[in-house]
Structures are given as C-alpha cells and as structure tokens.
Design a protein that fits this description.
Layout (H helix, E strand, L loop, with lengths): L1 E13 L4 E10 L2 E6 L4 E7 L4 E4 L1 E3 L13 H9 L2 E6 L9 H11 L4 E4 L1 E2 H7 L10 H16 L4 E5 L8 H14 L2 E5 L8 H15 L2 E4 L2 H4 L5 H11 L4 E5 L5 E4 L19 E3 L11 H8 L6 E4 L5 H8 L4 E3 L5 E3 L5 E3 L2 H16 L5 H8 L1 H6 L16 E4 L24 E4 L2 E4 L10 E3 L3
Parallel strand pairs: 1-4, 1-5, 6-7, 7-8, 9-10, 10-11, 11-12, 12-13, 13-17
Antiparallel strand pairs: 1-2, 2-3, 4-23, 5-20, 14-16, 15-16, 18-19, 20-21, 21-22
Helix pairs in contact: 3-4, 4-5, 6-8, 11-12
Length: about 450
C-alpha cells in the first residue's frame, strides 16, 4: 500500500498507551492509518531515524497576537515552528465575544495549525458595558451568562477569567459563569486574583472552592506566576489533591512573566512583588529593549497605547521546577506577540521557545521527569482538558498531528531582543498537521530526511 505520507524509523511515543518503540507511521488524508514494524511506502516519505515521533504539541494557554484581539496569524506561524499543532487562545479573560465571527476569520486566514478559543470574562464584562473595576449587578451577570452560553454554542471550548486584570469581578459573577461551564461539561481557566506570596493561597482557595461547588473543571493559569514563595506550590498541591474537583494547571518554563504596564496588575505598586520597577524590560513601542525607571514607568502608565513588558525575576525558578513536578500540571506558553508598523516583531520568547525549553532544559538537562511524562504534559493532558479525543495520541484513527524532534538537539533559540523573540528552536525538523507535512528546519542541516517518491 502507498500512503500519502509515511514516517519510517522514528521512535514513536504515545503517552496514552505507553507505546515507546521504533515504528513506521502511515498517514492517509488527515488521519494516522497505520503503525507498522515493516518499512512503509508513501507519496512523501520522511526519514525518522534519530527522531522522536510525538503527538503534536498542544498549547493550552496562548493569546492572540495583537491588541485589540485579532486573529492569531503571527502566533500560529510561530507555534508551528516550535512543534505546536493546536493552540488555545482567549485566555486570562481576554477574547473575542463574537465566536462565530472569530472562527470565520480563522477559516479565511487558513492558519497552519488548529486554533481554538475560550470566551473571556473580561471581554464579557466589556460587552455589557462594565469597566475592569465595576461590580456587575444581577441583570449584567444574566446578560454575561447569555453571552457565554451563545459563545459555547458557537464553539468556544471553555470560559477564562482574568481576575487580576478585572478586580471588579465578584464571586457571584464567577459562580454564574462557572455554572454555565459546568452545564456544558467545559472548563474554566483562571488567572487568579493575586500574585503575591502572602495572598496566594487565598487566591487558590477562591478558585478551587468554585470548582468544588459548581462541578466545573478548573485550570489554574500559569501557576508559578500567581503562586510562588512561602512554600505555596506545595500548599497548592496539597489543596488540589485533597479536592474532589477536576483540577489542572498550566506552567511556562520561565521565571519571567509579561503583561501591559497599563493593566490593573500594577495598581498597588511593587511592594508585593518579587521584582522592582527596574526589572521591567519594555517589549513594545518606541522604548522597546529598554528597562524601566520609575519616571519612564509613570510616563508609560498614562499612555493610551498598551505597552507590553517582561517582568524579570518575577518568581523563583525553583517554583517553576516544583510546578512542573505536579502530577496535574501541563505546559502552556502564555505566548503573545506584536508587530510594529515597520515590521519588527516584539514579545516574550515563550511564544516560540516554550516546548523546546521545557524538553531541552527541564526534561533532558535537569532530568525533572521521564521523556514520556514530558510529552504527556505537552500533548495528552491538554488534549483531554479540551476534549480532543483524536489529538494528543499516536494511534490508528487519530488525527495526523505529529511533531518530530531530535531529543538530544532540541533547545530554545529565542530571546527577548526585537525579532529574536521569534527565532525557532533547534531540533524540530518536521511537523505534521492534519496530514500536511511542514518542513521546519532541514534534518542534519539539509533536507536529506525528506523524499517525494513520485508514487
């Protein structure tokens, strides 16, 4: 039999079945058709010798690549280069509210990977005329509930919250939207209310209690960024494992977070943070590449244009390591990028560096977990969270979403400098999305691992 695409000789790793064996993969259309010990023939043949064949990585926590929120074309291109075959946007409460229009735009742009979205509570608040600080009255909550239901009917796969960005969000508002998610069997992803060590467990208790009382599945967003210091990661683990609720979290492999200088995050100054104003690196606008001073911070806070900043030394790297050791943690990039009018790309390297940094540094170099567990956190766990029954797996009948990487060579190459933030990683030569092969970086420095058989 001649397959559309075949990958011969790769080490196939499937985190659901535990399969870890050198096999040959046959693909027909957009599905995996065969896993065989014998060599296969295909119209396109990929030499998988020396490569891991993993289910396509799924970014459970991404953002659109422009503000106000637009269709994530830039972030999708970058995600493909780092091995992602699907991304979930609309996190931290910030999303489109016209979900049907969003998917129409995605279809028109013909993105190279799958793109899914949450409906955000901050976006819902704005849609009913609320600012970030006002408390919703019962009528406004009911309108948000109706909009949330409509979003789910149009394809949103969960609801997200940006409690720190919209401090006016009340318990009643949260519970009403958690209830809607529970009714649809979907999940709530929450950027928690505080990221101060002294208040971290109050924030955890708030969201875990909501999951317990409503039955909604919970995803705690970028856990170490909100929960760090004072042994709070271990305390969170104890609280989650004590709960009967279905709870996961996402973690990016950096101790640097990013947000806009205009956000409510900075309303109380820097006394509660692990960093100072001088640790803020400006990522967008005319001052991109500079570090803040107090006077520059004050000036930019008054600007009408959002200024993205990287907050260096935001949390101890030890807490990031501890978070990845949690059995319920997944890998998410929290990635977002922006392009200036002159074409310069600016942002946090996590947008394109996350899987490679996680696998190369945390799994391979630090030996934090077996490779199969690392792959599970990048694939099966986020797939299950999103109810993608045919993704996150390498099995016959599953979607032909496959990431091929060299485990010894995979490493992040992106950095914070302008345009360098989208430098693709080493060690990922091919990504297959829906049965379409993408050449990312030629194997062994040239395209010698790919052959069009002409059959």
């Amino acid at each position: 039999m001649v397959y559309d695409i075949c990958v011969n000789g790769a080490r196939v790793m499937d985190p659901e079945t535990g399969l870890d064996e050198n096999l040959n993969i046959g693909i027909i259309g957009d599905k995996i058709a065969a896993l065989e010990t014998k060599r296969l023939s295909g119209h396109i043949e990929v030499d998988g010798d020396g490569l891991i064949a993993s289910p396509g990585f799924i970014d459970i926590h991404a953002h659109e690549d422009a503000s106000p929120y637009y269709f994530p074309s830039r972030i999708s291109q970058c995600a493909l280069k780092t091995g992602y075959t699907s991304i979930v946007v609309g996190n931290c409460g910030m999303s489109h509210t016209d979900i049907r229009g969003f998917f129409d735009g995605i279809a028109r742009q013909r993105l190279p990977i799958g793109c899914h979205t949450l409906i955000g509570n901050v976006a819902l608040r704005h849609a009913v005329g609320l600012d970030n600080y006002s408390k919703a009255d019962p009528a406004e909550i009911n309108r948000m509930v109706s909009l949330c239901r409509k979003a789910f009917e149009e394809g949103a796969i969960g609801v997200s919250f940006g409690l720190q960005y919209a401090p006016g969000t009340s318990y009643e508002e949260e519970k009403a939207l958690f209830d809607v998610a529970a009714g649809y069997g979907l999940f709530a992803a929450v950027h928690m209310r505080y990221d101060y060590p002294e208040k971290a467990m109050d924030a955890v208790e708030e969201v875990v209690s909501l999951a317990e009382s409503t039955g909604a599945r919970l995803q705690i967003s970028h856990l170490p960024a909100n929960v760090y210091g004072k042994g709070n990661i271990d305390k969170t683990k104890e609280r989650v494992l004590r709960s009967r609720a279905d709870i996961h979290c996402d973690v990016y492999p950096y101790n640097v977070w990013a947000t806009t200088l205009q956000s409510a995050v900075f309303d109380e100054g820097f006394d509660n943070f692990n960093f100072s104003v001088n640790n803020l690196e400006i990522l967008t606008g005319p001052y991109a590449g500079q570090y803040c001073t107090q006077s520059l911070f004050d000036e930019l806070r008054l600007s009408h244009d959002d200024t993205m900043t990287a907050c260096h030394n935001a949390m101890p790297i030890e807490d990031v390591v501890a978070a990845y050791s949690l059995p319920f943690s997944m890998v998410g990039s929290d990635g977002q990028l922006g392009t200036s009018p002159d074409g310069q790309v600016k942002g946090h390297p996590r947008s394109v560096g996350t899987p490679a940094k996680f696998l190369g540094e945390f799994v391979r170099e630090k030996g934090l977990m077996p490779l199969m567990e690392g792959i599970r956190k990048l694939t099966l766990l986020p797939s299950n969270q999103c109810d993608f029954s045919r993704k996150g797996r390498i099995q016959p009948g599953c979607d032909a979403d496959i990431t091929l990487f060299n485990y010894e060579e995979i490493r992040e190459q992106a950095s914070f400098e302008i345009n360098a933030c989208v430098e693709p990683p080493d060690g990922i030569p091919y990504v297959i999305v829906g049965g379409e092969l993408h050449l990312i970086r030629p194997k062994r420095g040239k395209d010698e691992g790919l052959r069009d058989s002409g059959k």
